[in-house]
Each structure stands twice: as C-alpha cells, then as structure tokens.
Amino acid sequence: MNLQVQTRSQIHATPHPPFRGRPFLCSAQRRPCRRLAAAANGGAKFGLRVCGSSSSRGEELSKVEEQKKRRAYPFHEIEPRWQRYWEENRTFRTPDDDIDTSKPKFYVLDMFPYPSGAGLHVGHPLGYTATDILARLKRMQGFNVLHPMGWDAFGLPAEQYAIETGTHPKLTTLRNIDRFRSQLKSLGFSYDWDREISTTEPEYYKWTQWIFLQLLKRGLAYQAEVPVNWCPALGTVLANEEVVDGVSERGGHPVIRKQPMRQWILRITAYADRLLDDLDDLDWPESIKEMQRNWIGRSEGAEVDFRVLDTDGQNRDIKITVYTTRPDTIFGATYLVLAPEHCLLSSIVSERQSKDVEEYKELASRKSDLERTELQKEKTGVFSGGYARNPANGEAIPIWIADYVLGSYGTGAIMAVPAHDIRDHEFAGKFDIPIRWVVVPDGGGSSNSERPFSGEGICVNSSSPRSGLDINSFPSKEAACKVIEWVEKTGNGNKKVNYKLRDWLFARQRYWGEPIPVLFLKDTGEGVPLPESELPLILPELDDFTPTGTGEPPLSKAVSWVETRDALSGKPALRETNTMPQWAGSCWYYLRFMDPKNSEALVDKMKEMYWSPVDVYVGGAEHAVLHLLYSRFWHKVLYDIGVVSAKEPFKCVINQGIILGEVQYMVWKDSDGSFVSADSVDVSREHHQERISEENVMKSGDSFVLKDNPDIRLIARAHKMSKSRGNVVNPDDVVSEYGADSLRLYEMFMGPLRDSKAWNTGGIEGVHRFLGRVWRLIVGSPLPDGTFIYGTMATDDKPSMEQLCCLHKCISKWDKLPRAAIEPFVLLLSPYSPHMAEELWFRLGHSNSLAYEPFPKADPAYLKESTVVLPVQINGKTRGTIQVEEGCTEEDAFKLASTDEKVSKYLDGRIVRKKIFVSGKILNVILEPQNVKAAIR
C-alpha cells in the first residue's frame, strides 16, 4: 500500500524513527519502514518525555500541546534530530588520506572567532550562514569541500577577564569554546568538526613557534630598542595596527608613547613590495586592497641633506636628512621639522630652548602615532633654537620640533613647504613662519597664502645662481627628476623609495600567549633559538598572571621555568618571558585545517597543494590591516621556504556587513515636555530625546512620524548591537521561538551580504511563515492536536508541464504533488534550510542524507513562455492587451483583439485602413477618420 493513500490518523499513529544511525527504510517500497522504526524505538511514540506527578504531567503536556498548535511546523523536533544525525554519522567529514583528488575542491572558510563569554549574537551567524550555504551547494555539485571551524583563543580579552574574575584563562577559554561550539551546532552549520583546532593547544602552537624559528633563521625576526605604544591598563606593548584613535583596539584603553624598550620585531617591511604588487591579482573588495595599499604606503622621492648651522651661520659637521616625495618644492622649504624622538635633537637644541623642548617631548610621548598624525588636530610645536641651510638656495631656515612628524616614518624629519602642504601651512600660520609659493597650477595662477596648493603644476620662484639649480617653468614631475639628479651630483642627497609600513612589533608583556622559543645565555646575554626537537615550548601554569606594571612580563614570575640550560652548550640560560601577540596563531590556521593531526609537519605538501589557496574567505572588514596583512606576510615567508605552493593564502575575500539592532524611534522634547519635530528643532540643553514605541509610529514619505501627530517627525536609527544599548538579540532565543532554519533564511534575505542592515523581528516572522507554508504544502495541514502526519502528500504521478514550469518560478498550491516536482524543490531549499529539507527528504522515502545529492540544474525549456502578452494600439494609442500564442499571425491577433472587451469597443463600426503588426511585440490598428459632416449633424 502506498504511503499517500493511508489515512492521516493511520500515518500519525506511526512513531518517528530515532535517527541513532541511518533512518530505517524498506528499500523495496522506497518509504520509511514504520515497523522497524517502532521496534528500534522500544515501541514508544516519538514525543516529549514527562516526569513528575500525574497533575503536573497533565499541565505540562497541555502547555506543550498548546505550543504545538501555535507552531508553523515542528522545528523543535526536526532540528535537534537532524543535528544529532549529522554528528553521529559525521555527515560533513572531509576525507583526509583517502580523498579523491581527481574531483574539484572548494575550500570555504570563516575568519575563526575569538570565543568570548558573551557567546554569539545574531550578527555573528551572518557570514557563517553564507559560507555554509556555499559549502552545502558545492558538496551537492560534486566538489570535495573543506569547511572547518576553530578558535582564536589566545590573547588579551581572555586574560583581562581572568584577571578581573580570578579565574585561570585556560578554564574560561575552554568554557567559552564549549558555548560557542554548542551555539554553532544549534544553527546546523555543516562544519567538519573532526578538524576543529584551537590556537591554545600545544599541538597547534608547536608549529606557530616553529614558524617563528624560521623567521629568526632568515633574519626576519630580530630584537631592537624601539619607542613603543604602551598601554598602562593592559600592561603591554601594542603594535601600531592595534591602536585606534589613541586607544587600544582591544578594550579601548588609553595608549601612550613610551621610551625605547627592547622588543622582538618581525621584518615585514622586507616583503613590502610583494605585499603591494600581489594585491592586483586578488579577488578582494577594492576597499580592502586600497586600505592595505595605503597602510603599506609606498612612495618615491628623495632624501636631501640640510646642514646644521652654528651661531655664526657656518656649517657644522651635523646634517639633517629629510625624505620628501616632492623634490620639486625644495625652494619653498622655509623651515625643518624634527620628530620629538629624533636622535639628533640633543645636538641641535639651544640651551635657551632646552627646557621647552624637554617639556614638549614629554607631552608628545603620551600620544599615539594616530593621534599625532590626525589631520584635524591643532598643530603644536616648539622652536629648537637651531637653524639649517637649504641646499637649493643657501637660505638659513629654522628647525622646529613638532609631533605631527613621526620618528618611525622616513628619517623622522621633513622639509616643511607651507605653500604646498596643508599641515605645514597650518603650522606656519600658527607660528608666523614665511610661506613661499613655488608651484602654480598648470595653465596659470598666482600665489595665495590663504590656501595651500598641494597638486602638481609648473615651478616658479625656483632658481638659484649660487647652487646652480634652476627648475623654473618645468612641470612638477620633470622638475622633481632634475632636483634628484642635482642632489646626487652635488652630494646633497639621493633618490629614495619609502614606505609607511613599519616592522611588526611582535612581543607582548602578557601571560596568555605562545611562549617565544628563545633562550638568553646568562654569561653573555646571547640569544639562542630553542632546538626544533624541543618544540612545543609549553606555557607554564601560573597562579598570578597579573601584569607586573613595570614592563617585566608576568612569565618572569615562573622562576623555575625561566631558569634553564642551553641544550647545545650546557650553559645556564634564561627563557624569553615575552609572549607572542594574538595575531600569531591566526596568521596560519587556514593551513592547519588542511592537515590538523600531523605531528611531523605543519602541513603535508600534497594536501596543501590540493587545498590551497582558500577559495572563499569571509569575515569583517576590520581585519584589513591586521590579520589579512600579517597572514599574507607569513604565507609569503612559508612560500619562500617551500612549505606552501601558492603565493597568496586567500583567493577571494568577502566582507559581510554588520547586523544592527532593531530600528529605534526617538522624539525630541522641549523643557515643557512638548513634542518638537526633528526637522525643526534647534538642539539645546533644554531639548532631550525620548524613545517612542513602534506602535505609535507611522511612515510618511521617506520619514517616520507620530501616529497621533503626523507633524512631529521622528529620528529613526539602528545602532550596532551592544549590551549598553540593550539591543542585542541572542540567536538562542530566536532559534527557540522560530527555529534555526528561519534564522538562517532570514539573515540571507535581509539584504546583500556585504551591506549593513537592521534586525527586524517582523521580518523573521515572515520567513518563518514561508517555511510553514512549504511544510504544509508537502506534509499537509496539521491535525487537530497540532501535530502532523508521518509522511508527505507526494504522489508518484508524472508532473505536468505546467507544474515543471511552476517549479522553476514559484511553488504554489497543487491538487496533486508529483514527487518528481517536489524533490528538486526540497534539494533547492536544502542549503538554506537544511533541517527542514532533510526531514522532507526522509519523508519522501530516501534512506540517506541529501547532503551529497546532485543539486538540481535549471532547464531553460521550462522557463520559456508559450504565450505572450501583446499590447494593442488604436491609432497609436494603447487601448489594451491580449494573450496570444507565440508565433501568432497578424490575422489571428486581430481576431483576438476584435473580441477583447476593452479593445473591441474602439473597433465597432469603424473601417480599418491599415494594421501594423510586429510578432510578439505589438499590434497597431489604424482606422479611417470618421465622417466629419456626419459628426457635425
């Protein structure tokens, strides 16, 4: 007996299979075998297990039954069941050693998360859902898919939380990972959990340490005394990329400039040109590539020497070398500026100015590089008391100290040309320094000291008989070349390529990070790399991991670990007590996913050659000049030493947008508490904003207004989700109320992946109703108790042409549901809403998961219309439309038009002079003019 001819009550009485293995099916009938399933489940119906007294059981059961009736479909049963099935059957495991490399590969990767204690909010699954849809699609299209997940678990946040709570960061990290993993599994993501990694596992950071040793061998890791960004609150040094607007990128703590400290540094500048040039071949957002280009900041120019003068105006044996990208403006240099940390400062400052200079240096040391170079900030500086000679014209020009010049960029000194640089112009205006115009726009112009001209043009006021340099009337580029030739010929400088990119400050004075595998001999202080055979160097357990406050790392407290002996010489030695930054472990994790269990190598060469590069990499744009740049640097080093075969790690990068909280509506109120329209209010201290509930709001054009008073326009704005605003939406709550499939589908229907958009609970309710309609279409309407039949309404009838065409457009309600039409629809739905699709697939009589079923292919034949809508014009004016067969003749079209209710009234009693017919496009009927005399009578 076929399933579809049973009564609903008969079908419902059959228990659902427990899915502890493969679903039980009768292969001969291609439908679920109820007898075997019931036997495996102990003969009990699949449902809620209730404990307690009979009365409490009855009340609880009543609540459950009521809840069942309200649900659009039983996602609360379906989703846990299929998640359990996927896990028990390792459905999404990617074969390792036994993989068929003749098949195409698809490596899709999420920027792996930092597992915080707060868990996920609904913004996090946006990118994860997109990558999961791609992974599921590619599996069904016959690709070997690598879709892994892991944890970026070392770093400051976990350590800060541990310090605040007195809990070891290892414990909080493991607890947070468990929560994140549970949440991700509840959303049905098809990760290969067999490949799960954490940067805190010794088996993993053994290879992070190994990469560091390779950098050290090649001179790409070194120690130096350098000025650093010091964060007192975090008790550690930060790289330039980790300081945003003068505060730490993690935590938002103030950062100051500290006197030189001995630090580990990675020579990323050695790869500057390759990091820049190879961007052109990447399928990345242009904005991200431009951010990296700007951060690397390659520029061509010249280094020019300015001789320092003594009190008599004679040259001293001291020269200040400046770097300039505009040598053509050298005649306009009316002063020099040195960074407060410039090495020659003490030799130049006059005794009279020394106190002011020292005070200014102290103030500058409290600012970050970003604060100092902010264009909008007010320029500050102090005169050094010294002068230097401009080599182009021989003039003595003053030497100033100002914090808008950085010691870490160029030479730490600039020639200031206030007529042609906005910062120099502001500085000169404030301190009354001469401004000399030496370039005018091409096509003519005159000097205007009120506004600098920073573009290229024609040189003026740029010749000197004393120096023999004359660039008057030359275009800027040609003039720049002549100046470079002149400084090289006269020994006053040379051509120079420069970069904004600084070497990566790598050491951290914190506990929760990878130990750096280096020893220092006690007798000589010589640094000795740890033998590779001794890796991993395990992070020791510490009870007190708080920062020391002196710059000495917390690991210095682990005395028995710090004091050791060099294995090669046997001499007493001390271990390095700085740790690596959080970025170290995330620089190469994508490689470890290819071969996560390998204890002999970072990654097997054959596996790397097959899987590299990552095909699609999805994550936030905030990582453009941190993780993405660092990863590219490490990858290129690994490429040079033969560990990897591709010169770039990520073929395509996609930045998902931010999901904002729900739109909030605010109204202005005056001091009397009266509403004031947002388009008229002149904000003052007497005005304040008050939140208005959505039911009191209505749309008016492009604005929102009060329902009760449409003259009051409101402020409608969605904010980034944060605890402080109280607008965080927990995905656990959404899954509980609507199901994981609804959340997944809604996040994809909110708008383009790359755009930011506001959360709207009404939107997810609409998607949930859609899934409910799909369920009722295939399974049928719910029974009186809110449950559904076991099986589907599908038949074995052959689908009609109309149904096949409908499948290619939009499923609608049919009297009969041919399996051949419904099954492709279920497969189309599966990447988006996999739990429902799996359930429907099973109910349609399939024994295996649909995860590897061939994805349906579009057939253009079903998209082709057999009829077309033909506009009909009378004397050139459209009077209606008619439905005609494709290829319809002019005669047939006219006959149909003559019988059409709207068109025929214009033809009655009229003589047709001419018919203009374009097949499938238009019918235009030209009529004879009516008798004018008859019309007059």
From TrEMBL:
Residues 111-243 form the Methionyl/Leucyl tRNA synthetase domain. GO terms for biological process: leucyl-tRNA aminoacylation; post-embryonic development; reproductive structure development. GO terms for molecular function: aminoacyl-tRNA deacylase activity; ATP binding; leucine-tRNA ligase activity. Residues 1-12 have a biased composition (Polar residues). Residues 1-23 are annotated as: Disordered. Keywords: Aminoacyl-tRNA synthetase, ATP-binding, Ligase, Nucleotide-binding, Protein biosynthesis. GO terms for cellular component: cytosol. Residues 499-660, 719-748 form the Aminoacyl-tRNA synthetase class Ia domain. Residues 820-885 form the Methionyl/Valyl/Leucyl/Isoleucyl-tRNA synthetase anticodon-binding domain. CDD domains: LeuRS_core. It catalyses: tRNA(Leu) + L-leucine + ATP = L-leucyl-tRNA(Leu) + AMP + diphosphate. It is an enzyme of class 6 (ligase). InterPro entries: aa-tRNA-synth_I_CS (IPR001412), aa-tRNA-synth_Ia (IPR002300), Leu-tRNA-ligase (IPR002302), Leu_tRNA-synth_edit (IPR025709), M/V/L/I-tRNA-synth_anticd-bd (IPR013155), Methionyl/Leucyl_tRNA_Synth (IPR015413), Rossmann-like_a/b/a_fold (IPR014729), tRNAsynth_Ia_anticodon-bd (IPR009080). Residues 293-471 form the Leucyl-tRNA synthetase editing domain. Its EC number is 6.1.1.4. Belongs to the class-I aminoacyl-tRNA synthetase family. This is leucine--tRNA ligase. It comes from Rhododendron griersonianum.
